[in-house]
Amino acid sequence: MAAYNLSNRVYSKIRPLISASMDARYMLTRNYHEKVIDHYENPRNVGSFDKSDANIGTGLVGAPACGDVMKLQIKVDENGKIVDAKFKTFGCGSAIASSSLATEWIKGKSVNEANSIKNQDIAKELCLPPVKLHCSMLAEDAIKAAIIDYNTKKNKEQKSN
Amino acid sequence: MFIRLFQHRLSTFMHIPRSLINTSSLIEQCWQCQRKLDRNECPSYCPCEKHVLLPVRSEIDYFRLFDLSRSFEIDTKQLTRMFRNTMKFLHPDLFTNKSDIEKKYSQDQSALLNGAYKTLLSPLARAHYLLKLENITIEESPVQLESDFLQYIMEINEQLVDEDNDQKPFPIELAIKMRQEIDDHMKELSNALNTMDLEKAKEILARLQYFNNIDDKLTNLEVKHGII
């Protein structure tokens, strides 16, 4: 504890040096790409649809390693085109950015086109570091889960008709 | 493989702490006093009066560093006591005037001990580590939990966002309920790990991770409301 027995006068002299080195460390560890920060600060398409609606597909996925949860919903028209998408994510910045980007991308696409979106595409667009790749995987899983949910609803509807 | 299986069975049925049967001997000579040592008995330094530092051996698990048996239930007071006692002999400050090799051993050993202490002190990290010792990681083989559970977690998270405004009082009922969930899951986790039901342990650990995130948010709220 000898290191902490400095007088206040000495400490106030060296204080700026400490904070400078802290800032440097902060800059080094917090180098998210600006696209991630943009999506994190201004997430697109946040919200929910009524999940009992027949034209809505809901995908609910989680990442057990970090405890993130992601809900992604699609609204599909009679031609099989995704006309709107919404998401809600409770998790890290990368998970929020991945799902925000995913909703932007799938809007206007057909269900089949949306199904072919790969997590690598999302990770590449957001320049995610390797430790955050699982966030983009979560977004891909969410799209797929939403489409599966929509298809099951449609199949049930056809059977009952 | 079969020996490991046998050990599992043995420890399950006879309730022998696994570390007692799992100590394959790691005999080596102290690099200074040439004394023969079993590294499982002295993981960090030689028991001679000089306390010569020994190189890090990756075969020695974290529990051995603190002379604890490999189990989920540990005495954290003993852990902290052992951590401080051992650090007295390892800390790099003690080796500033020593040889380069001793400096290196001191850095390696104290870094290892710090990491091990952090891991074993937190119940979640300890459970992850116990599974890792059995070659199970949640990252590599994710558990897909049922959607009802995820829905439940989603709703609580949504509720917490609503609660996070200045007009609302702290959600005491929710906090009690969540802490109860964590306690119950911890008990289940402990049972599963004691009986070596590793798949079950992995699943409970996955659930606990979600509750843990909620608990962090509740703690932040408590700070905000001046409760803690």
UniProtKB/TrEMBL annotation, chain A:
<dbReference type="Pfam" id="PF01592">
    <property type="entry name" value="NifU_N"/>
</dbReference>
<dbReference type="GO" id="GO:0005506">
    <property type="term" value="F:iron ion binding"/>
</dbReference>
<dbReference type="GO" id="GO:0005739">
    <property type="term" value="C:mitochondrion"/>
</dbReference>
<keyword id="KW-0408">Iron</keyword>
<keyword id="KW-0479">Metal-binding</keyword>
<protein>
    <recommendedName>
        <fullName>Iron-sulfur cluster assembly enzyme ISCU</fullName>
    </recommendedName>
</protein>
<dbReference type="GO" id="GO:0051536">
    <property type="term" value="F:iron-sulfur cluster binding"/>
</dbReference>
<dbReference type="InterPro" id="IPR002871">
    <property type="entry name" value="NIF_FeS_clus_asmbl_NifU_N"/>
</dbReference>
<dbReference type="GO" id="GO:0044572">
    <property type="term" value="P:[4Fe-4S] cluster assembly"/>
</dbReference>
<dbReference type="InterPro" id="IPR011339">
    <property type="entry name" value="ISCU"/>
</dbReference>
<feature type="domain" description="NIF system FeS cluster assembly NifU N-terminal">
    <location>
        <begin position="32"/>
        <end position="156"/>
    </location>
</feature>
<comment type="similarity">
    <text>Belongs to the NifU family.</text>
</comment>
Automatic annotation (TrEMBL), chain B:
<dbReference type="InterPro" id="IPR004640">
    <property type="entry name" value="HscB"/>
</dbReference>
<protein>
    <recommendedName>
        <fullName>J domain-containing protein</fullName>
    </recommendedName>
</protein>
<dbReference type="GO" id="GO:0005739">
    <property type="term" value="C:mitochondrion"/>
</dbReference>
<dbReference type="InterPro" id="IPR036386">
    <property type="entry name" value="HscB_C_sf"/>
</dbReference>
<comment type="similarity">
    <text>Belongs to the HscB family.</text>
</comment>
<dbReference type="InterPro" id="IPR009073">
    <property type="entry name" value="HscB_oligo_C"/>
</dbReference>
<dbReference type="InterPro" id="IPR001623">
    <property type="entry name" value="DnaJ_domain"/>
</dbReference>
<dbReference type="InterPro" id="IPR036869">
    <property type="entry name" value="J_dom_sf"/>
</dbReference>
<dbReference type="GO" id="GO:0044571">
    <property type="term" value="P:[2Fe-2S] cluster assembly"/>
</dbReference>
<feature type="domain" description="J">
    <location>
        <begin position="61"/>
        <end position="133"/>
    </location>
</feature>
<dbReference type="GO" id="GO:0001671">
    <property type="term" value="F:ATPase activator activity"/>
</dbReference>
<dbReference type="GO" id="GO:0051087">
    <property type="term" value="F:protein-folding chaperone binding"/>
</dbReference>
<dbReference type="Pfam" id="PF07743">
    <property type="entry name" value="HSCB_C"/>
</dbReference>
<dbReference type="GO" id="GO:0051259">
    <property type="term" value="P:protein complex oligomerization"/>
</dbReference>
<keyword id="KW-0143">Chaperone</keyword>
